[in-house]
Inverse folding.
């Protein structure tokens, strides 16, 4: 059944996104990995929409909107971090660690 | 379930996973972004396979067309496209740990899927899915829709405030 396969693909994509978040230090690539995880969840929503009707599609659209808002705000933060440190390396952001 | 359908489905699934693996291992932010666009196109193909053509179109328009353009635009704006400038990928210990966490998470997700999901009948395919989605979006999920609009407004204002150059005191 295609539904189970779609869920497996979704799980694999989510795990790849988690791996990216944990291994990368570039803030922009980190945001891209978060987008990949959101996409994996969207695939789950669409797959389950085959079971439960079109409510899943509505959720996918709302998730996409929230992803757009998150990307806009996150990239604005990246720009202001770059202005402050001259790099987007997350190793620089240790102000709260002290 | 024709074999052509299956072939298309697994083709798009393999494309998505392969492009995601390439995306996560690229050093340069620009090539990572382009591989991520590839993942999104493959996912939109999967959406078409799963009877969601409207979501597939929105995926191409919004994700591949708008969000990724913003990412590439920021990479160009900050001029960090050259991969040799920063040691981006973390050291070996963190990489092994991340791989372990990812494998554990994957095993967990697959185990959950095997345990809970029963074999059920699929919902009958909707004839015109745009009509159904619009009816659902503007009646059942109207509150979520309006709240998302307000969230977008807040995000626009926040992005402008955060990215604006501070006035020289």
């Amino acid at each position: 059944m295609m539904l189970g396969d779609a869920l497996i693909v979704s799980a694999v994509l989510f795990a790849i996104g988690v791996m990216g978040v944990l291994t990368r230090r570039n803030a922009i690539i980190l945001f891209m990995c978060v987008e990949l995880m959101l996409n994996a969840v969207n695939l789950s929503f669409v797959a389950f929409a085959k079971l439960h009707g079109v409510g899943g599609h509505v959720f996918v659209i709302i998730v996409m909107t929230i992803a757009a808002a998150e990307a806009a705000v996150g990239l604005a933060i990246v720009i202001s971090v770059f202005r402050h440190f001259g790099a987007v390396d997350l190793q620089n952001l240790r102000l709260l660690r002290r | 379930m024709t074999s052509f359908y299956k072939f298309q489905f697994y083709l798009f699934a393999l494309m998505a996973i392969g492009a995601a693996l390439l995306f996560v291992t690229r050093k340069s932010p620009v090539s990572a972004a382009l591989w991520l666009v590839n993942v999104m196109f493959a996912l939109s193909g999967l959406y078409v396979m799963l009877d969601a053509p409207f979501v597939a179109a929105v995926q191409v328009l919004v994700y591949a067309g708008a969000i990724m353009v913003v990412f590439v635009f920021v990479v160009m704006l900050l001029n960090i496209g050259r991969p040799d400038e920063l040691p981006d990928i973390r050291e070996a210990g963190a990489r092994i740990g991340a791989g372990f966490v990812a494998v554990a998470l994957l095993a967990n997700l697959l185990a959950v899927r095997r345990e809970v999901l029963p074999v059920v009948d699929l919902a009958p395919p909707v004839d015109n899915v745009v009509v159904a989605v619009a009816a659902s979006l503007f009646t059942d999920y109207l509150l979520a829709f309006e709240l998302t609009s307000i969230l977008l407004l807040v995000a626009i204002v926040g992005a402008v405030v955060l990215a604006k150059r501070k006035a020289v005191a």
The longest helix of chain B spans residues 53-78. The mean pLDDT of chain B is 83.
